[in-house]
Each structure stands twice: as structure tokens, then as C-alpha cells.
User: Fold this.
Amino acid sequence: MYLFLSESPRTLYLVTSSQDERRGCPSRALVFRAASDSFSQAVVEFLPKQEVDLTNAIKLTSRIVKGCLGLISIANEMFLAVITSATEVGNTRPSSATPESVSQIHDVGFYCLTSSSWDDLSSLTADPLASPGYNDQADVYMREHTGSGTATPAPEHPCAPLRKIISAGTFYYAVEPQWDISSRLQRRLARKEPWDAATFDDRFVWNEYIVRSLLDFRDRLDPQERVELDQCQFVVLATQGYVGVSTLALPAPPTNGTPIIATISLISRLGWKRAGTRFNTRGVDDDGNCANFVETETIFSTDQHCYSYVQVRGSVPLFWEQQGLQTFGQRIQITRPQASQPAFDRHFAALVEEYGAVHAINLLGTKENEAALTWAYTRHISIARNSVGDTIGITNFDFHAAVKFGGHESVFREVRHLESVVDNIDRFGFAMADANSSEIITEQKGIFRTNCLDCLDRTNFVQDILSRTALEQFLMHIRREWIHSTSLWSTHAELWAENGDALSRIYAGTGALNTSFTRSGKRTLAGVLSDATKSVSRAYINNFQDKGKQVAIDMFVGNLSTQRQVTIFDPIHDSVRAALANRLHEYSTTKQCSIFVGTWNLNGKPPTSESLLPWLFPRPNIPDPDIFALGFQEIVPLTAQQIVQADPEKRRMWEAKIVDTLERRPNKKSEYILLRSHQLVGTALLVLVKKELTAVIRNVEAASHKTGLRGMSGNKGAVGIRLEYHDTTFCFITAHLAAGHSNIVERNADYRTIVTGLHFLKGKTIDSHQNVIWLADTNYRIDLDNERVRTLAQIDDFDALLAADQLRRAMDDHEAFHGYQEGPLLFRPTYKYDLHSDTYDSGEKMRIPAWTDRILFKGNNLDLTVYSRAELKSSDHRPVFALFRAEVRIVDHAKRAALQKLLLENVTTTAPGEKLDEKLASLAFTSHEQDLPPPSTDEHAWWDDQDHPNGIVIPVARGNGANGRSTNPFDSSSESSLSSSPSSSEEELYNALQAPITPNQPPAPTHRRPAPPPPTRANKPTTEMADT
Assistant:
């Protein structure tokens, strides 16, 4: 197929070639253009080729286009992504009735639908074999245009980082339209329904985000058009990982001297739901998706049998990360040690549902960092058995210790003889199918889940052993003599070595270690030197290059919070989406939660015997808060040594003190756990929650930003923790701004630097959240002379002090904290006191008292109930606290899906012989239909009434009944003034969908069908939630 461009309006045409048509492909064109004044909505048409006028169109590339990956919106422009170079790897299962070939992507092009600024017509003369990878120096989007003896670099294409990732040789797609590369053999053969291009394993289709709109467009086509679209292969689903195919001759039985041709294939499918690079993406997320999750399938195919064996690898499924500069002694932090179990359970429950039994093989060592992960992993497995059952187990095997004692050869021997491995190899079995009929003969009933720290070198080594052991079992059943085939095992080893290199390049930037032994079975000097070089390269790449690559990955899979997914113009679905956003209250509920927020400058002091109860529980008659957010400044003395390398021990001491206070408090009603803590030199933030809330608090992240010495020093700066409580987002920020009475401008600048510079994962900023609370030592002072301030404070004349408060002036002048609120200051200035005294600073400097410690907030659903200070005297600051009530929204995704389906069915249901296009052209909606129910309230909802008990809604099509109503609920009566309306505008369609719609009722009571199962929860909040 070829890609053409025409202007006025700007349109891209993906057109089948004569070569495609000779192979039986329909003569068709897929036409793209941007909707008017939109960079995130496209108009797409699937037309016969003869109906497309290409007279004035130009061919955008001389290359044959292999297919379309999707549409993406970047930098306020919309781009069409197409594959421009790919090579066929081979047929992974030659014994299949239809070929199952795979192609490897080498280059892609991103062509703009909204602007000509990025047209690159010179690519017509470019090297057709050029295929820049992520680390290639040459990038055709970054050309130098010479003129007058000078070189001026062209601006970088907005999609250049994406192009580098996709063109790195790690993406693959199915050549034939009739097979699904994303699903393992056993899953494909077990499907009973006819093949459908929209049926795939969404864990492994990397372009799902950018191709989703085209798949939705495909679903709306007529059945015959859908078949033709699939035959044209305009839309391609791509996986990332590795595919290797090798064919070899094996000895035939004595009765026949002709060798048997066997094919061995290795397919690794990398999951995208927690995608990222080595130091940027670790552990698990709240949905149970873990980093570097890979499903690897070994396929062995002959003319009689086809064998499949599946294993998975993945990061230890706990909340852990590595921050800062990482060298060879990697620092590991388990960030939510007491709140990992719900996500851990989700991860293993998903594995059990998908694969059956799961046995984890943990290859971490006994060094301090890895030992902590091993201990936590084992403990979580034992707890998970209560919810998941005995279908999961774990074996801890110290890979490095085994190599140190007996070399890599000992690992091969020991793993094969581990009791848990031997037992589970037999118990899990393998999948085998008849080569001619593709009927499943045996099924694999469980998997091994292998991990080390990165799930690369050690993991690949052990998975190679497990794959060989399982294949030997299969050969024992069908042809015992093949077990001794040297060519078979050398081919198997080579494929696994290449697999290790490919997966390592994706995650860590270099090839895998230990592959020299994997290939040859020997540890050589050249292999040792190669591994040393790779280790140094990894350290550099992971520390200094991966952040940019991480952003590109997040952009590709739709993780950036600022992204807008491209949709295809469809007035029905667009209006339904808008209607759903405006009817949020009908499929969601709210509940109240209470939040305690406190800030305290500790002056570098450790915990003392002084009780924290007056601060943490200041009002005895108030129910226990759901969340504690506690910010500390100067948790360590701000010395040069601490600034260079902060000591976390003081933070741990204060964490222990707070947890102990909560545990030992009188009349304890609730259990609390430390959800997350984070430290930047002297600034630290702790978030604790009630234990029962850990299952509904998700996506907890921490970030920090330095402001000292122009951003180079952490003696001043901010720490943030964000979280989602059900479907409502919160962000807590503690900060220590510039000191000095007169340094107002510096403090204002620190605030702006923090707001613009503090970023969470996936592009989220402070202002991305619905509720934001600052709890900080702002260091703003009072602009009055010392004696005057002390006198006014002594007589509690707070109004006079507030009139001279620097922070209030900065807020009024919009210099800092614009849009934030603060409670009334009805307590004395909190700084600076003599230690263990109620006397303001009597030392040599005699600092002017000030309200340096403040709590500010913004959010429509935050209600401040208490704002005060506590009389703790172990620091020169008094701690400040605030109590909030907040409204938390809980979205019922099953109800939302039911309402969406109901709206769509009412709009698209047609009478016999009526065409939807004609109906839409003649529709005239009115919001005064008498049979429509009133809007839902807290007392009554459209989905729960006497005709629809428990919310079961069954739309039933029927003809005109005794009541004389039309089959079409949207038809106007002949007397209606609207009946002669020739058409309805998009605005009318939109307005009509804002009114509740009731389904048609059955003519007579009948037995009800059960309600459809609720849909699976979306991976991330829908866009309509963003503004709630």
C-alpha cells in the first residue's frame, strides 16, 4: 500500500497497491483528515479506491507502507503513524493450516494531519533501508540543511523520540491477518468464536492507545466492510519483545530415511501496562501490573505435533524503587512496605486466572538490598495464599551464591534438581496440539514466574534451563532420540541468548550479561570482558539517558496526564461521551473523609519523651482522621555533610515515634499504617492512612524538587506525595522556602520553581490534582519592628499582625500561592521560640516572631474545620495543624457502562427497513417527552425501579403496541411541530442526550435474563473524570 497527501482540505490516503490487489486484497483506501479546529479528533473514511481522487495528491514516501499503527496527538498536532520498513522473521508454526508469520519493524513514519510544518518530502530520495534505532546517531528528522557554508539544524520532529523507540528492532506484528501474535498458542486454539481482528491480549499490544480509535471505527463498519478492512491490513497491532524462528532437520524413524523438518520458535511478549526503563520503572502498580513483565513462549513444531511452553518474568510485585544516581551498589527503597498486599494479591490473582497455578522462582541474593526484597516477597506470598489459595508458591534460589561456589555450570545442575522445579514441571505440563487439526491434546496448567532484580540476565539464564527441561519432557513422549540432538539444543540456546539480549536492550539499554555461557555452555575471557563493558554502559545509559526514553514510552502508551487520545468523528458516540460526563452523579456516589494535616520545623532535633498527642489528636471529640499528612522541615541539621548525603535515620526515628503514638493512644479506635514517606535532606513528608483504606487508595507516588543554590542544593526545596482515594486525587506538598526576613522575592521564586519543577510520574504536576494541600515552613515574616510584633502577639491582636504578613501580601498580589486558601490565623506566631519555653527568641539575634509555618489548600471539595497550633516545645517552632473534611467520589464503572449502552441503543435502534443514516438525518429531539423519567436523585435512580429491580435493564425491540406508540422512541407525532424538521443538528443531538432515557418495556411480564457481567475496570481514569 502507498501513502498520499492532498491539500484543501489536508487529507492523507492509505491506498492499496496493484500488488496487494493481485494477492486478493480488495481495492480500497483509508482516508484521514483532521476534524475542524481539533488536534485530537479525526475524520476517517473507508472507501472504494475508485472513489478517491488522487489526481492532485502527492506520494509522501517511496517506500511500500506495511500498515497503520494508529493516530496520536502531540504538541497540538495530530499524526498518522505508519510502518515504512519491516522484514519477515519467519513462520512460527509451519504446520498450521494458515501461515503464522511475523515481521520485525525497522522504521516508522509520523505524518501530520493538521499542519504542513512537518512534511518531509525529501524522504522520497532517502535511503529506503535506513532504519534509525533509539541510539542511532543519524536521525532523518534531524537533518542539516547546508547553505552559505553554514549548517543549520532543522527543528526536531515532535514524534522523533517515538520513532526511535519503535524503529529499534524490538517491535513485531503478524504478517497474515488471520492470526493473533499477542496471544499464546493455547489461548488462540481454545477460542471457540470465529477469528476477529479485535480479539487480542491487550496486555501485550503496545499501540493499543493510538490504534484504539481505529478499532472503534472498525467496529462501526458493516460486516462486509469490516472483512475487507482486515483483508487490506490497513490496521496493524504491534507487540514489543523478541521473536526468533529457526528451522532444523532432525533424524527420522528407521523406517524412513527422510529427515523430519522441525521449527523452533521463541516469542517474548513484553507487557506495556507498567512500561519503562530500568531505574524509572520498578515493582508493581495498584492494578497489579509489574515492571518488565514478559510472557515467553517456546514453540516446537513438526508435521505431526505442535508444542508450546510458556513462562513469565516480572519485577518483584511490591512497591519499591531506586532514586538518585545509581552505580553498581544499587540503593533500593521499599516505598509502601505496609500497603503492598492489595496490589500484590491483584497481580497473583490475575496470573492465576490467566495461567492456572503459579510458582515463583526468586533469584535475588543475600546482600542487604536484595535480601530485604526477598524477605518481603516471601512474606507477601504467604499472606496471599489466604486470598489466592495454594495455587501459588515460591522458591528462593541465590543465583550469585551458586555461581560463586560452583560456576554457571552448577546453576544448570542445581535448578534442574530443585524439588519444587521437578514437581512443578510435571504438575504444570505443556500445551500440545495436533498439527493437522489444531485441536488441543494437552494443556499447560501452570507457569513459573522467574525474577531477579532487573529480570534480565539471571532470569533469562534460568528460564533457558526451564524451557529446555520442559522440552525434554515433551520429546520423551514423541521422539526420545531427539533429546541427544546437538543441533536442537544449540539452536535452542542461541534463541534464548538472542532473547536475553533483546529484552535487556529494551529495559537496560545494553545486551544481556551471561549470554556467552548461554550460547556455548562455557564462561570465556571474552565473555567476561563483554559483560564488564555492558555493566559500565548500563550505568551510564540508565542514569543519564533513560529519563527521556521513559517520557517517550509514556507518550506512546498514553500514560502522560496531559495527553488527549485521538478520537474519530462520530456524532453519536461523541454526544454520548459528553452526556456521560454531564450525568456523572447517576453512576457515582460520594462519601466524606477526614484529613489531618500537620507541619513542624524540628530544628534538627530527634524525638524526645514529649508526647505528640496534643498535635496529632488535638480535639478529643472528633472522629479519627482517615488520612494523616505530616510535613517536617530540618528533620536533620542542615550541615554540609547532610546536604551532600542526607541521613534517613532521623526520618525513621520520627516515623517510629509517630506510629508508636498512634498505636498507644488512649481509646484507640483505628489502626494506621505508614502509606508513604519521602525525604529531601531536611524536608520530609509522611502519609499515614487507616489500615482498611489501603485497598481503595491507589497510585501513590512521591517526588521532590530542590531550590537551594539555584536548584543545586536540597537544603531548601519541596517534597510531594500524591494519591488517588477512590476516584478523587490528592496532592500533599511540604516545603522549606528561602530564609531571611527580607528575602520575599526569593521565597516567591522558590514557590514558582516548585510548582513548575516538581513532577510525578507520567507528566503529572501539582496542579494536575483535584485537591492540593501545602504544609510548609514558608519562611514568610511579619513586616513590623520586633517590639511591636511581640506586643501584638502578647495581646493576641492577630488582625494587626496579619495586615503586615508577607505571605498574605504575596497572595493578594498574585506573587505566590494564587488560587489557594488559608484558614483564619487565630493563633500566635509559631516562630521563633527558646527551646522548652513560651518565650520568643531571647538570643543574640532576637528574631522577629512570625507565622512561618502555614497550611494552604485548594480544591472545591475541601472543607477546613480546624486550623491551629499545638504547644510542643522541643523545637524552636510550634507545630501547626489543620483538619479537613473532603468529599471523595466513587465511580461505579458497571453503572456507567450500563448507562452508556442504554444511550447508544436508544439512539441507534432502528425500525425494520429503516437506515440509521436516514434516521439520524431526520431526528428531532425534544426534552419534553412525557414518558421520560425525571433526572436521578439520591432517593431515586433511573436504573433501580419496580420495573427494573436491582438495576437490571433489558431493552426489547417491539413493534407498535396497543398503546399506539411508535417503534422508534424518537419519532415525533404527526401533530408535532418538529415532525417536519428536515434534520437535527449535532447540538440538538447533544442536548437530547442530557435528559434521562428509559428503555422500551416488554409487552408482557416474562422471565428476566440475568444482567450482563460488569465490564473490567479501566486501567486509568476516563477523561470525563479529570474535572470532577
Notes: Residues 188 and 498 are 25 Å apart (CA to CA). Residues 246-480 form one domain. Residues 486-508 form the longest helix (23 residues). The chain has three domains: 1-126+156-236+563-569, 246-480, 589-891.
